[in-house]
Every structure is written in C-alpha cells, then in structure tokens.
Amino acid sequence: MTTVILVLLCLAIAGRELYLASDKRLPRAQAELRELHGQVAELAKRHEALQAEVAAAAEPGIAIPQPLVGEPAVAEAAERLASLTGRVEHLEKEIDEVSSELSALELDREAQRALARSLDSAEQDIRELHREMLDRLDRQEGVVTGLLLSEEGEAEALLAEAYERCASEYGLRVRIRDERSAQAAGGGYWGTAYRLSGRRSDALADDLFTHVRGLYDPQDPSALTALLVEFAHLRGGGVARFGPFTIARTPSALVCGVLPDDQPLPGEPWELASRLRELPEEFQCDLSWLRTED
Fold first, then answer.
1. DSSP-based helix, strand, coil % in the chain, nearest 5
2. Would you call 191 exposed, middle or buried from its count of C-beta atoms within 10 A (0-12, 13-18, 19+)?
C-alpha cells in the first residue's frame, strides 16, 4: 500500500513540475514542489530499507514479523505521507487558482491590445476627416488658424469665452479645438489652438486691426474689446491670434499687430511683443494703457 501511495505521489509531483515549467511566474509553488520531491525521495529510501529488512527476515527458518500499526518507523512514514498528500492537494488547488488568474490576465491583455488597435484606427480616421473637412472649408469659405495661450493657464476659461465670442462676432465658426501647451524660460503656457472658418484671414486681420487702432474706451461693448481687457488683467504673459492678427501680453505691455500667418511664433511673449514693435507703424498698436497696475 505504501508503495502505491509513493508511486501516485511521484506521478502527481512530476505532473505538477511539468505544468509549472511553462510558467516562471510561480516561484513559490515551484520551491514547495522541490521540497516535497526531496521528502518523497527520502521516504522512498526509507521504504526500500524496510523492504530489505523484510526480505532478509523472509529467509527459510526465520519467521517474518508482521509490522504492527503502532510500529514507530511505519507509523511515522504513514503520517508523513498523509501530511505530504495534504500539502500536494493544497498546492494543486493554489496552482489552479493562479493559472486561472493568469489566463484571465492574458485575455485582458489581448482585449487591451485589440482596443488599442481600434483606437489607433479611429484616431487616424478622425485625422483624415479633419483634413478633408478643412480642405473643403478652405476652398469654400476660408480657414483661419487661431491660438490662445496664457501663462500657467491663467484665466483660461474667461479668455476662451471672450475669444470665441469675438470669433463669432466677426463671422467665424469654431471647427476644431486642440489643447496646446508650450514651455518657455519664464514658465509653461497652455490653452487652445483653433481652426476657424467663415472668413479669409487677410480680410479678418484688417477688420480686427482697424478696431484696435480706433479703440479708446475700455468699456466698449464689442467682443474684441472684452478679449483685450481680459488680456490686460493677466498677471503673467499671454498670446492670442486670429490668423495674422496677433495679441501679445507681457507683465509690462499689451501690443497688437499683423504678422505673416505662416511665420512661427517666438517662444516667449516678450519676444513676440518685441517683434510686433518692430513692425511698421501702420501694422502695430500699443494698448499697454489698458493693463491694470498691481
């Protein structure tokens, strides 16, 4: 009976070892199985020794003593076998649970990969639709690029509301909004980049610049004046653009002007303000009198 139990136990452990060899993420279970394997080997040696004693005792003329249930060696071996069997059963249950969790994780990873592929495809489709829509709008109505940034996102909601109200007042429709951020020596700037339709950029810039050149009352009810006043109240820097028409706010100045739409902007608002001041008189306007003193 003891031999049968040992054989079955060895087979169970060997099966577990083969199962675990395919997954290196179960080191604790593997260590326990190695320990059990050593204990079974020790019991096997002891069992062989007992069998040798029985065989020697079976020689002619010598009575074979029957092992008593209470005999220490046999009782100890049976007790250890029962203990090992219980540990193996517990370990098998634990391995099955871990294997189920690993299978679920594999399914989750595959689902995540499929979702990521779907999102990538959807993003590409959206980008292509945006490009197609903007191309059509540019041919039919004209597309104007817009930008609105403030230092550390100061007064972002108020500025966005004033900016979009100004766009609407001058016949523009917001087609695309993209979050935009820029890093400068003085700190970070963030806000929104716009694509607007409904006007040609050169005609729009002329109308906006004509308004600021004639501005003298900060209580003027126009949306552009409201936007300029919001910029004047900023503690830090800021930038706004409607195509070529550009507003630059620094802690000490508020300057407007008409810059070529295709030129990249400087990294700092004070650099942009300096560039605007370098324009001919008819293309720049200093509105620093609108800013509030701290």
1. 60, 20, 25
2. buried
d(CA 3, CA 136) in angstroms, rounded, equals 86
Q: How far is CA 99 from the centre of its chain?
A: 28
Query: Rounded distance, CA 6 to CA 179, Å?
Result: 70
* Cα separation, 224 vs 203, whole angstroms: 16
**Cα distance between residue 224 and residue 220, in whole Å:** 9
Where b means 16+ CB within 10 Å and e means fewer, 222-254 reads: ebbbbbbbbbbebebbbbbbbbbbbbbbbeebb
| 3 state SS of 288 | helix
Q: Which amino acid appears at position 125 of this protein?
A: D
Which H or E run contains 210?
Answer: helix 201-213
Paired tokens of 69: 């249930």
Q: What are the start-end ranges of the E strands in the chain?
A: 143-151, 173-184, 187-197, 238-242, 245-250, 253-258, 284-286
Neighbouring CB atoms inside 10 A of 99's CB total 15
Beta strands 143-151 and 238-242, pairing class: antiparallel
* Confidence (pTM): 0.57
Give the model confidence (pLDDT) of 213-227 as tens digits: 998 888 889 999 999
What pLDDT was estimated at residue 65? 45
Instruction: Give the distance, in angstroms, between the CA of residue 11 and the centroid of all CA atoms in the same chain.
Output: 47
Encoded tokens for 160? 């966005």
Cα four-point dihedral sign 194, 199, 205, 208: negative
* pLDDT tens-digit readout, 42-56: 666 665 666 565 555
Q: How many CA atoms does the CB half-sphere of 294 hold within 13 Å?
A: 5
The overall longest dimension of the chain from CA atoms, in Å, is 133
Q: Which of 234, 221, 244, 232 is nearest to 189 (CA)?
A: 234
